[in-house]
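Researcher: Here's my situation. A collaborator sent me these components and asked whether they could plausibly form a single complex. I don't have experimental data yet, so a predicted model of the whole assembly would be a useful starting point for our discussion.
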Amino acid sequence: MTPLLAVLQVEAMKLRKSKLLWIVLATFTIAPLMGGFFMFVLKNPELAKSTGLLGAKAQIAGEATWPAYFSMLAQIIAVGGLLVFGFVASWIFGREYTDRTIKDLLALPYHRGILVLAKFLVVFATAGLLSLYAVGFGMLIGWGISLSGWSSAVWQEGLFIIVITALLTISLSTPIAFFACWGKGYLAPLGFMILMVVFSQIIAAIGYGDYFPWSIPALYSGIAGEGYNLKASNAFTVLFTSLAGIIGTLVWWLYADQY
Amino acid sequence: MKSLIETDRLSKRYNGFQAVEDLSLSVNKGEIYGFIGLNGSGKTTTIRMLLGMIKPTSGTCFIYGKKVNLRNYAIWEKVGYMVETPYAYPELTVKENLHAFRRLRLISNPDVVDQVIDRLNLTPYADKKAKNLSLGNAQRLGIAKALLHKPGILILDEPVNGLDPAGIVEIREFLQELAFNEGIAIFISSHLLTEIARIATKVGIIHQGRLVQEVEAAQLHLLLNQRLVLGVREKTQALEVMASAGFVSSLNKDGFIETYDVNAIKRPDDVARFLVHQGHSPTKLAVEEEDLETYFLRLIGQKGDKLL
């Protein structure tokens, strides 16, 4: 067994046995259900009002089509993912400090970087699988409520945007990992994550979202309307932030005094 | 003999606080080194430096003769350790925790987990989640993790904390067996000198980051203060008689005469005979030795010299 494989197995086991997995699964189950609900209401506004699903004064704008629904799923991943993937990263890294198990990982007969790498791989894999689950479940709901406008071009474009959005969002979970290590627990990363979500909204609202990494996935997902063009510089901004998170975490594990 | 654990003028200073200063020690194969100090004396900082978790400000640690640093990670293959209170993954059972560490230690044979569970009497708790373990059993789990890969060096920080008296005896015998029969070098920290003196072959006392004494455990009793305690009916007169014979003595808080005079301690029978001849037959005569904890406190200057 190679060290990386061994650490991956252990990290996967820890995640499998944790409550976190169920919490994030529940979150990514509820989110597409909400999306589906809105689509259903848009599709059947009178039925929704008559059955009490919607209040008399409700104002929901939009259209109940597959392109709109795909965009909604992408936005769920962009905004919900920032929180959920950040939550996963802060748990995977921060729990070693909160449970005070970090010291058991610091004198093993292989390079400490392997542990950091394995933890990041598990964060990425978990976030990827969660995105897949949210989209898969969301599509089932879409078919269940018989949305209109399905075509191969629509689902190809819809899924492409979702995949890119997911990749951008997942990339931004690495600074959270650094804050989990630096803050030795959950509080610092969760605080940082909430701050970034708030900033992403404000900065996007004042028109500088292009320059703020945490705004980019949501803008790309179509949250501000159609027509956002992801430029190489935007992708680079996100990638640079992600890389900074990885390097920061690695440097922390390798060189910081671990009290 | 080549030392398995060695520190050379090890120092650590952080935030203006000198946690460890100029600490040099060594532990050989089959030795149990008892590292004694009060809380905050620098024991855990030393252990963390030994394990490469903290970088020394100056000085070096050697494990198996190799310098402890990030590149020499291969040295940890045969080192088992437990730092501070043992913590485990709370949602995993004892068995799952050990299997996780078996994998992390790259051991392919799953039987080692059952063997170590059996060896540390954890069988009744094997399927219990770590978060539900008593402190004593969590301590056993910590030691089990340290022993899983059959190390040649064992570094244990306060391993008997939280154990009941039977558990302390059991772990003591177990560590002695590991050192004396299997040749493992054991470095064990504690704030209990009496407890450590029972198993250690060498004792090092650390205070305010400095190694204030290092002594073979067998020689430890030679360092303990002794005194002769006398009970007599006429205390004031007996004190004068003792002084006339050249024995510096005083009345202690319990109302007994005591003297630290070496001749009196060596020949209490002569003192008794002398007092009888002077008409002060002793009602009590005892040579008392200070206990190790008292010696420890005296050594680190926490209490007066004549504490005994």
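Model: Some features of this prediction you could bring to your collaborator: DSSP finds ten helices and no strands in chain A. Residues 3-255 of chain A form one domain.
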